[in-house]
Write a structure and sequence with these properties.
mainly beta; Elongation Factor Tu (Ef-tu), domain 3; 3 domains; about 15% helix; globular; EC 2.5.1.9; repeat; transferase; ATP_synth_asu-like_sf; Riboflavin synthase
Length: about 220
Amino acid sequence: MFTGIIEAVGHIQSMQPRGGDVRLYVKTGKLSLDDVKLGDSIAVNGVCLTAVELPGDGFWADVSQETIRRTALSRLKEGSKVNLEKALTPSTRLGGHLVSGHVDGVGKVLSMNEDARSWHFRIEAPANLARYIAEKGSITVDGTSLTVNSVDGAVFDLNIVPHTMQETVMGGYQVGAPVNLEVDLIARYLERLLLGDKAAESGAGSSTLSMSFLAENGFLKP
């Protein structure tokens, strides 16, 4: 688990094809690895990766085909900057929100405009994630915990303060950039729980949940 508070910006030092997937070497910059051991998790642009080698100034991690298909890591190249966060501990301040490091989909930066000293971003999420994004709710963009200012369909607005622009990869975004999105995990589980016994049926999924389903199962008052 993570908090979405970025600890450092590193970069991709090497990307090596390995039997159909990829092994990454991430140089971690100012992120201390003194308390990291083999098998520990580190979020890279919001993707939870496992450290399989620790040379000293970074770590190697294997990236599966599933991760390549479901995230924007496939768009990275050697030299790309990445947000980094070590897994939280029982004593970690939860300054952001609970983040699993399991990316739900890839969004796209639609616009970036200066707003006094901050920046106003508009990001388009995949259509199937729109129902999980709520005004003043939390969302993770490339591993950064952010507050949603407003929502219009699958498009949501963010206000990015100067500190976040300086201390994360958001300062290097351009219009059209793909970004990893993780929605609030409570919303994801709540939707699944509302399915009740139907969740065990073959083919049951989030598409089963509708206003008629809620009414039929007593979740809505007539």
